[in-house]
User: Fold this.
Amino acid sequence: MVPLSAYVAVSAVLFITGLLGVLIRRNFIIVLMSVEIMLNAANINLVAFSHYLESMAGQLVALFIIAIAAGEAAIGLAIIIVVFRGKISTNVDEMNLLKW
Amino acid sequence: MVLVFFAYFALASIAAGLLTVALKHPVHCGLALLALLVHVSGLFILLNAEFLWAVQVIVYAGAILVLYLFVLMLLNLKTDDRYFHSSYLYFLAPAAIGSLYVLALLVRSPFGGAKGDATTVAVLRNGDTYAVGIKMFSDYLLQFEIVGVFLLGAVIGAIVLAKTPKPVNGKRKA
Assistant:
């Protein structure tokens, strides 16, 4: 029997990996992929607690998170296309139009 | 036996996550993300969440990842020389220390709590999909509708954003 804390540990490692990716990668698409890693880590946590606490709520929230992730990917990639069309590269350091 | 599968899926998903962050070429990162998603779906199987396994493979690996790869191919990105933050080593050390601390805390925690009514036996009687559906369309109906409206807004927003803009100072309507 795998203990619950093992699942939570995997989830924590994945979440920190995704957070690190958001912080250190400079390509906007890779940053969005790192956000997907973090959402997956949260999903592992929710499903693990749903199984071990014998409640269905965790799986439903995980399902909603997948739907939100789909919407976030669509909007984020549309923004990338708009930015790239304005002859700005996808490097996040060069997207500073809103910075003052 | 379950322990072997868990160790495989956990280690493979962590390795794939690290590769997603560390690889240089964006397409390689996308493929590493695919490996991560498939192995996380394997963890869902171990947790008796067959419906989420199917959703993960179909929606995440099938739709979201293909969208990412599609945009990568569409933009035809060149690999940058400098693809990390200029001082990423300063992020790396706190992340390693913080993750080790969190891991030490997690492994010791007992994680007790109030048990719900969805025991493994009760879920397996009619299947996981049945249990998810019954719960979703009774207690979580409002959230389900909100997610539907949200997805509609996301679709409209993506179309409006990605549409070819009209020329600003071109020919106006006469």
